[in-house]
Design goal:
mainly beta; 1 helix; 5-stranded antiparallel beta sheet; 98 residues
Length: 98
């Protein structure tokens, strides 16, 4: 996944994986997706050519899907890596307190 900027008004893009462990051999398909809303424990994601789904922040699994053998997942570490600054750039935050 390519690097992206964290900007107000621009959606965060990521990859949503559809997995099917029932098929022989198991299948995994990648879909382009974007985060459109953050909630307390869930994230709302628009998946291109599919629809809009909610995912748990903790596990990255699709909510409302009782069959864990197939469904959508998102990988939080990939999103985290895409938001890191380019190599060689260090970011330091300082907060002046009175």
């Amino acid at each position: 996944m390519k690097r992206q900027k964290l900007e107000i008004g621009h959606p965060l893009t990521l990859v949503a994986y559809w997995h099917d462990t029932v098929a022989d051999p198991p299948k995994t398909i990648e879909y382009e997706a974007e985060i459109i809303e953050w909630r307390d424990r869930t994230v709302v994601v628009r998946i291109k050519d599919y629809g809009v789904l909610r995912f748990a922040k903790g596990t990255g699994r699709e909510l409302g899907n009782r069959d864990r053998r197939r469904g959508f997942e998102i990988n939080w570490t990939e999103l985290e890596e895409s938001l890191k600054p380019p190599p060689g750039v260090d970011i330091a935050l300082s907060v002046d307190s009175p």
